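Much of what follows relies on a compact textual record of a protein's fold. Each token is a code from a learned vocabulary of local backbone shapes. The record below shows the convention in full.
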Amino acid sequence: MLKKVAVKPAWLESDAVVDVYSLSNCVSGDFADYIRYWEHNGYWLFDSPKIMTSLAEKEGIDLSGTTLFYYEVYEYEFDDRTIEWLGFTPDKFESFETDVQVPIKKYLQGFDVVTFYANTSPEHSPLSCNSLATEISVNQHCLFNAFEEAKDAIEQGLFKNSEHGPYRIFAVYTLDDL
């Protein structure tokens, strides 16, 4: 995903945070309102940077000031109603093909917890969207440093009074420029 990374908003009272690398687009926006073009995959993201750049070229979308991210999602999501981890798969809607191209060079920045109440596109990243980073230890990009930190925080109920789940954990990587 290409995103316009935002510096820490004034309302996010965390000394650790410099900018927000969350998957959700509440603080750091996506390069476009991409869903309406129906070129995303079953994870409601993109299989490769080329798809986004082609879309931007075709639709006249300015990509300047964007950062290229790659995400890997944990194969389970946490159901906040049943309090259990359940498996999930990418959306299999007939027009979705999912063939993610894994980049050769990727740079791990941390781990995000993202809500999927509608079970489609990424909705909220409570660390930034709900200011949980003011109460939970995060890195400069408003992410957990380790997968286990994210998983433990979910299991300990630290996300309980934010957005409704299910919650999915994503490894957040930056990639070299396009």
